[in-house]
Write a sequence for this structure.
């Protein structure tokens, strides 16, 4: 008797998944609740487990797109018996290994070309000069046409028809011109669709400003060691930006709102989405109620979500929702960009790299570590006054970190 293992429901809005990897192979003996495969949706990666012990019989292949409820594999009863039945297969492996070790011998015995077959270098010369290989006598092993044979044939052709010889333009050395195709992952397809939808369905605009990062850098330099010793996590820039954003959202609630049909929904909380680059693409986990969190709590949340994203362990709940997004292109060296809104949100803040630049302070030119910041927003709900005011408020809070503690 066998048990069918089907694609489980993984989310209300998810109708299909991709079988990204078989962890167990066809014919393997598996235990109850053992992970046998990985399924990938447009939002997260899930593990498929064995619902009984037995022998695995795969049905779907890696890369297949499967609907929810589709059969992925079967598990045959009797895990111990199949293990013995698999023993002959284990005995057959040395035979396969012997075939593989014998292959090089066969290749060595076939290193000599058949009569009239040009070597790679000779073939290139004959092709460039338009000489038929059948008209050239090979002097190599087993009649192989060598490079010298090709050169002599070229010289003989010129001698036979000197008047007909036309100047030959040397062909440009060709590099590797191979190409590779691979199927778009569900995550990449979803990202592509959403980004195009945002561009088409919102009145997106971007405003820019710059931030003098010296006050924050000085503060980090002074307290980073004691901060890490006390809280067990490093003091980064993301916590300062997240805290500054949550304070600015209180002053400009439209930036934290969204459009729902013909209504505007204002949120009295700040669920901040943090864009993270994961191995399978960009994901945006959410820090819930960031407005009520300390710098240490924000740093711990960012670290935990980043590690989950790297390992592909983020859940749908951890990536669902969010009222405002922060993305940091500066970690990749970006100087300035226009980030795209993370729908259905109405705004996104883009951080960039920090570069020392000359600026004017109190009538003097000084060198300061400066960062460009960009706010992309939906002009249907956020006016220019609010967008510029929000970004100026963020700038004020970052350039005077004491404001973050005093709330002024």
């Amino acid at each position: 008797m066998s048990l069918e293992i089907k694609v489980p429901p993984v989310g209300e809005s998810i109708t299909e998944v991709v079988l990204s990897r078989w962890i167990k192979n066809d014919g393997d003996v598996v235990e109850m609740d053992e992970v046998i495969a990985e399924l990938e949706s447009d939002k997260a990666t899930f593990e498929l487990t064995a619902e009984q012990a037995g022998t695995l019989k795969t049905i779907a292949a890696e890369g297949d797109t499967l609907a929810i409820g589709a059969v992925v594999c079967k598990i045959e009863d009797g895990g111990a018996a199949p293990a013995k039945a698999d023993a002959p297969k284990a005995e057959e492996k040395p035979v396969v290994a012997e075939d593989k070790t014998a292959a090089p011998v066969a290749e060595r015995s076939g290193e000599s070309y058949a009569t009239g077959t040009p070597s790679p270098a000779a073939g290139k010369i004959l092709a460039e000069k338009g000489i038929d290989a059948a008209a050239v006598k090979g002097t190599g092993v087993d009649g192989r046409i060598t490079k010298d044979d090709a050169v002599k044939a070229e010289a003989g052709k010129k001698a036979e028809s000197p008047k007909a010889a036309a100047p030959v333009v040397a062909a440009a050395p060709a590099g590797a011109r191979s190409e590779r195709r691979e199927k778009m992952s569900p995550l990449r397809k979803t990202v592509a669709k959403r980004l195009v939808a945002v561009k088409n369905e919102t009145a997106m605009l971007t405003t820019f400003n710059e931030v003098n990062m010296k006050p924050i850098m000085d503060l980090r330099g002074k307290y980073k060691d004691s901060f890490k010793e006390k809280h067990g996590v490093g003091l980064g820039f993301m916590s300062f930006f997240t805290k500054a954003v949550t304070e600015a959202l209180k002053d400009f609630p439209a930036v934290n709102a969204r459009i729902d049909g013909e209504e505007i929904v204002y949120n009295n909380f700040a669920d901040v989405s943090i864009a993270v680059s994961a191995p399978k693409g960009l994901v945006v986990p959410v820090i819930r109620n960031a407005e009520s969190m300390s710098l240490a709590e924000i740093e711990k949340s960012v670290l935990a979500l980043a590690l989950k994203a790297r390992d592909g362990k983020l859940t749908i709940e951890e990536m669902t929702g969010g009222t405002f997004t922060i993305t940091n292109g500066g970690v990749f060296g970006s100087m300035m960009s226009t980030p795209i809104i993370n729908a259905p949100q109405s705004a996104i803040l883009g951080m960039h790299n920090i570069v020392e630049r000359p600026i004017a302070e109190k009538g003097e030119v000084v060198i300061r570590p400066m960062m460009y910041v960009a706010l992309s927003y939906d002009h249907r709900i956020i006016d220019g006054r609010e967008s510029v005011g929000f970004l100026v408020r963020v700038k004020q809070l970052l350039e005077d970190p004491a404001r973050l503690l005093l709330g002024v």
In short: Confidence is low (pLDDT under 50) at residues 80-113. Residues 204 and 380 are 8 Å apart (CA to CA). The longest helix spans residues 87-109.
